[in-house]
């Protein structure tokens, strides 16, 4: 296992311990609102501080970009960690056990290491570029399903009405598959695509910490990741399409404007 991945796992597990401990007494958690349907807790902050401390102790020259505290370290660093200490905060504060810690490492802008840790289920998803994707100690692949009518998709739309934005651009994609799940944790949705639990994913207006780790998990598991036009601008636009090759191709086709 790559030494940088080992450090990321250590950081993710430390953060997961903080999250699990807090989940035992949700009434004592301090919750603040960052925006409509966007919350942050003292648990998010404590978990991020723990991750940054672990990463910077091992790699003091690396930069860290986190959801709660922004960029720490050299802005032009060759190595940058991208972290989400608790993706699925709304689920967490409601006691719904569908949330995760996400840590990715980029080198010159390319994601090279990825960890997504689900502390409530003790599931650890990891990937190193060129070495495959693993769930705990078992190598995993994207789903082998080929028929779009049987595909189960994950989704992240900030508002339910976004599914019909742009003259119903998403309607065909969602209505022709087996079902769409909005489970409240993008990093877990992407990890589930990598393991074949979901066949595809479509997300809008996402941030780098939502997608960095999951993108490598999917790619190393044999899947595809792109923006809604099939290009590689998803990290900048925040609009992400991902899935197994056969399902990804059909999702992408369903999103393209119809020719008269």
UniProtKB/TrEMBL annotation:
One of its GO terms (biological process) is inositol metabolic process. It catalyses: a myo-inositol phosphate + H2O = myo-inositol + phosphate. Keywords: Hydrolase, Magnesium, Metal-binding. InterPro entries: IMPase, Inositol_monoP_metal-BS, Inositol_monophosphatase-like, Inositol_monophosphatase_CS, Inositol_monophosphatase_SuhB. One of its GO terms (molecular function) is inositol monophosphate 1-phosphatase activity. The keyword Flavoprotein does not apply. Belongs to the inositol monophosphatase superfamily. This is Inositol-1-monophosphatase. It comes from Bordetella genomosp. 4. The lineage of its organism: Bacteria, Pseudomonadati, Pseudomonadota, Betaproteobacteria, Burkholderiales.
């Amino acid at each position: 296992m790559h030494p940088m991945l080992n450090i990321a796992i250590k950081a993710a597990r430390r953060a997961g311990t903080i999250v699990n401990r807090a989940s035992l007494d949700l009434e004592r958690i301090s919750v603040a609102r960052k925006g409509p349907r966007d919350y942050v807790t003292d648990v998010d902050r404590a978990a991020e501080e723990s991750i940054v401390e672990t990463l910077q102790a091992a790699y003091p020259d690396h930069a860290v970009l986190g959801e709660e505290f922004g960029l720490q370290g050299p802005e032009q660093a060759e190595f940058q960690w991208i972290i989400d200490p608790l993706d699925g905060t709304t689920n967490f504060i409601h006691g719904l056990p569908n949330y995760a810690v996400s840590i990715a490492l980029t080198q010159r802008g390319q994601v090279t290491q990825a960890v997504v840790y689900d502390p409530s289920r003790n599931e650890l998803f990891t990937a190193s570029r060129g070495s495959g994707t693993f769930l705990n100690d078992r190598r995993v692949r994207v789903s082998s399903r080929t028929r779009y009518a049987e595909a189960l998709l994950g989704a992240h739309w900030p508002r339910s009405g976004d599914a019909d934005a742009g003259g119903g651009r998403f309607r065909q994609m969602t209505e022709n598959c087996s079902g769409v799940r909005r489970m409240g944790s993008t990093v877990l949705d992407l990890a589930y695509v990598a393991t074949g639990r979901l066949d595809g994913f479509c997300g809008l207006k996402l941030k780098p910490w939502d997608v960095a780790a999951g993108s490598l998990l999917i790619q190393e598991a044999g899947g595809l990741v792109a923006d809604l036009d099939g290009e590689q601008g998803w990290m900048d636009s925040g609009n992400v399409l991902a899935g197994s090759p056969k399902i990804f191709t059909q999702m992408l086709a369903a999103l393209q404007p119809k020719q008269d």
